Amino acid sequence: MIQDRLTKIEEIQHSVKLRKIYPSLCRPLDSKIWAGIRINTSVSVETLRRALTQLQKTLDEKLSQTVDVTLDPNTANPELILSEDGKKVRHGNIKQYHPNHNKRFDKYMIVLGNKGFSTGRFYFEVQVKGKTQWSLGVARESINRKGALNLCPESGNWTLWQSNEKEYKACESSPVSLSLNVKLQKVGVFVDYEDGLVSFYDVNSKSHIYSFTGQSFTENLYPFLSPWSNGGGINSAPLIISPVNYNE
Question: What region, left, alpha or beta, does residue 16 occupy, with left being phi > 0 and alpha being psi -120 to 50 degrees?
Fold first, then answer.
């Protein structure tokens, strides 16, 4: 339930305050409550407090911020296969013929949503079940689509990355390893444009994974999905834009 998420936010807020007041208590948080939470010492406690307070305010409004994401075939790398309804994407072994216009990613296995957002808040969920590699999040409209691309905010994308089946990272300029106790099955992505916030959630365990805070957005932001290579079949499962379960 959403109330469960709010309770967990209150617990992490309290823990952050204790860490500031009593450094001797700096030990890992209860992994059953907030697996993989990372305290970035370069970010002030006040910034973290504001971010967590914003999460608390918006989680109970999540359903009203849910957006219906459909993937844009005109942005998809030629080796990606999209479902007819635009809700699933997987890697195929054969490059398909598509017009090579400016919107299309030509090197990396990336596709964007067909609608960008330049104000307010939005939330969507992606099923990652059965995959060993993927990356997802949001990207600005001017992201480089031709040739090399770094996964980091400086390159216009705010993403999580899974590799080697159970290795997870937040794609900062220096990637941040995330110690998660369970393999992710479904990831929620929440964006507050004006507040410069991009947050990721483990939908199944109802817990926060990571947040990019203090960002400055000046362009349209688009949902960003990359199923990566199918790895000879071991990573052939699709990424799926999932309807939000109102009972979760």
Answer: alpha
Contact partners, residue 11, CB within 8 Å, separation at least 6: 33, 34
Model-wide pTM > 0.85: no
Residue of 192, 28, 212 whose CA lies nearest to 119: 192
What is the tens place of the pLDDT at every residue in 103-159? Answer: 999 999 999 999 999 999 999 999 999 999 999 999 999 999 999 999 999 999 999
Q: What is the DSSP string of 30-43?
A: -HHHHTT----TTS
- As a whole number of angstroms, the distance between CA 34 and CA 156 comes to 28
DSSP-derived 3-state class of residue 53: helix
Give the alpha-carbon dihedral of 169, 61, 57, 206, to 10 degrees: -40
Question: What domains lie within the chain, and their CATH numbers?
Answer: 62-242 (2.60.120.920)
β-pair partners for 80: 91
Contact between 144 and 155 under an 8 Å Cβ cutoff? The reply is: yes
Q: What is the pLDDT of residue 13?
A: 47
Rg (CA), the chain: 18
Instruction: End-to-end CA distance of the chain: give it in Å, rounded.
Output: 5
HSE value, Cβ hemisphere, 13 Å, CA-based, for 248: 18
What single-letter amino acid sits at 123?
Answer: Y
Interatomic CA distance for residues 135 and 225, integer angstroms? 6
pLDDT tens readout for residues 197-228: 999 999 998 889 999 999 999 999 999 999 99
173-190 confidence digits (pLDDT tens): 999 999 998 999 999 999
